[in-house]
Each structure stands twice: as structure tokens, then as C-alpha cells.
Specification:
This protein is mainly beta and about 290 residues long. The chain is built from 2 helices and 18 strands.
Length: about 290
């Protein structure tokens, strides 16, 4: 009798979980893997997913969640999960693993894997992708919860990782205009004082802007300069680099100006001690040096 009661209690606990798994899931019908592509001058590989989100409308009386997303991990044949490069901010999870996330808004979802972000040696690698799905029900700020994935959740992917280039940089001098793009004083919504200048290095493609370096902030000044070089930054050979000047804000940094070139082009500018100006930046002096690739 005790055994029967124990089984009944177990079923009462398991059945709701089973029911939820079958009323909420992401069904992946097809995965199309592109060959090597160049997305806004960043080399990588793209997965195009054809999927359908099945959502439990009764839970919050909603037709669909506020946000749904997919996350992609990569594994080696021995089961080890691929690490991301240290500098990556948008292609790395809290454990340091490479992770590519994308919101699901239509039947087709494109997930881009930039080669520079993979902590792998140059050459051919046979890997396995693994997909997870998440939803935020009522608010974009709500913690996400995982739902099950059905269909082509895993599969084989072959990549040809190009050689990498490593470099360090420092901005020796920068000066900006007195007004922002709206012809208003910097930080006009707060105290209307001078901007707080910082430098960012970004690798930008059609899918995401990855911040691979962010400097310290020079507060309350229309000009700034730094002494120390950044930590080494890794890109795939041929990738283009975007260097941006920003006004550091609590919520969202305001862009003052950006400039994009290849590493050889930036090295030439630095070697010639060339003074640049772009957007709201009236003076910009860059020092950059190439590091040995490991």
C-alpha cells in the first residue's frame, strides 16, 4: 500500500512537468548551415533555423511571450564545450564558454558564429552545435526561463578557422565638440556638464556588436588621453575593427564618433602619427602595435 501511495505522489509531481514540456517548446524543423561568410567584414559561419514556438497561453493569458530567444553552444567530439576568447563581451556566457544568442521573432532565425570569438587553433574543426530555448513571459527585464527544444536540437558543424591577429592599442589624445548630435550640451538630461569620455573597440556585424575593449573613463572633460596599452585583442585575419569614442552614461553610453579600418590600415595611421577627426571627434591620436600570435 505504501509503495502504491509513493508511486501516486511521484506521478503527481512528474505529470505537471511532463505536461508543461509538451505545451511549451521550440520545434526546430530545419537547420541550414552556410559556408564561410563575411558579415560586415567579420568572418564566420551562419546557421539559419526554421522553427516554431509552442507557448502555453493560459499561464499569463498571453498569445506569446514578451521575448523568446535561442542560445547556441559548440562542443568538440570528446564532449568538451568550446571556450570563448577572454575579451568577448557578447559571445561568452558566465562560465567563459562561447555562446551565441538570438531573439526569435519570425519563423526563420539566423545565428552567426564569428571565428575570432572561438578559442580554437587555426585550421579545420569538426564540432557539434547544441541549441537551447528561453522565454521571458511578461517583461524583457524578467529573468528568462528555459523551455524544451524538439527536432534538430544538435548537429554537426565543420568550420575552417582562419589565422588570428593580436594587437594592443592606446589613445594618446582625443578632443570632442561642445555639443552632441542634437546640438545640446552633453549630459543635458542630468546636470548639463562636460562629457565623460571613454574608448571602446568593437567588432561589428549584421547580428551583434561585440565590445572587446573598454577603457577607463575621463570624467567631465572635452578632451582626454591614456597612457597604458589595452590588453591584447584578438581578431581573425582580415576582420575590420571599429574604434569608438563615447560619453559614459549610467544607462546607455552616447556615441561621439566611430572609425572602422583593418588592422594594417590602423597600423599605418599610427606609424604615421596621423591626427584624425570624425563625427563629433575633432582630434584623435592613436597608438597601436601588433602582438605575436600564439
Amino acid at each position: 500500500m505504501k509503495f502504491i501511495i509513493s508511486v501516486l505522489f511521484s506521478l503527481l509531481w512528474i505529470l505537471p512537468l511532463y505536461a508543461q514540456e509538451n505545451t511549451e517548446f521550440l520545434k526546430i524543423d530545419k537547420v541550414k548551415i552556410s559556408k564561410k561568410i563575411l558579415s560586415k567584414n567579420i568572418s564566420g559561419i551562419k546557421l539559419e533555423l526554421t522553427s516554431k514556438l509552442v507557448y502555453d497561453k493560459s499561464k499569463y493569458k498571453l498569445e506569446k511571450p514578451k521575448n523568446a530567444s535561442i542560445k547556441l553552444y559548440l562542443r568538440k567530439p570528446d564532449g568538451d564545450t568550446i571556450q570563448a576568447i577572454k575579451a568577448s563581451s557578447n559571445y561568452k556566457d558566465y562560465n567563459g564558454y562561447f555562446a551565441a544568442s538570438k531573439s526569435i521573432t519570425t519563423i526563420k532565425t539566423e545565428v552567426f558564429i564569428p571565428y575570432y570569438a572561438l578559442k580554437l587553433s587555426e585550421g579545420e574543426h569538426k564540432l557539434e552545435y547544441c541549441l537551447s530555448a528561453f522565454v521571458r513571459d511578461t517583461s524583457i527585464n524578467q529573468p528568462q526561463r528555459e523551455i524544451s527544444v524538439k527536432g534538430e536540437q544538435t548537429g554537426e558543424i565543420l568550420i575552417q578557422k582562419p589565422p588570428v591577429e593580436n594587437f594592443k592599442l592606446v589613445v594618446r589624445g582625443v578632443r570632442v565638440t561642445k555639443k552632441d548630435f542634437k546640438n545640446k550640451e552633453w549630459d543635458w538630461g542630468l546636470s548639463g556638464k562636460e562629457p565623460d569620455i571613454k574608448i571602446k573597440v568593437l567588432l561589428i556585424n549584421d547580428y551583434l556588436a561585440d565590445i572587446v575593449f573598454s577603457s577607463t573613463t575621463m570624467k567631465n572633460s572635452f578632451s582626454a588621453a591614456w597612457i597604458d596599452y589595452s590588453e591584447p585583442i584578438t581578431i581573425s585575419k582580415g576582420d575590420k575593427i571599429t574604434i569608438g569614442v563615447y560619453d559614459d552614461d549610467i544607462m546607455f553610453d552616447d556615441k561621439m564618433g566611430t572609425i572602422t579600418h583593418s588592422l594594417p590600415e590602423f597600423l599605418k595611421i599610427a606609424n604615421n602619427i596621423e591626427e584624425l577627426s570624425f563625427n563629433l571627434v575633432t582630434f584623435f591620436l592613436l597608438d597601436i602595435k601588433k602582438e605575436n600570435s600564439k
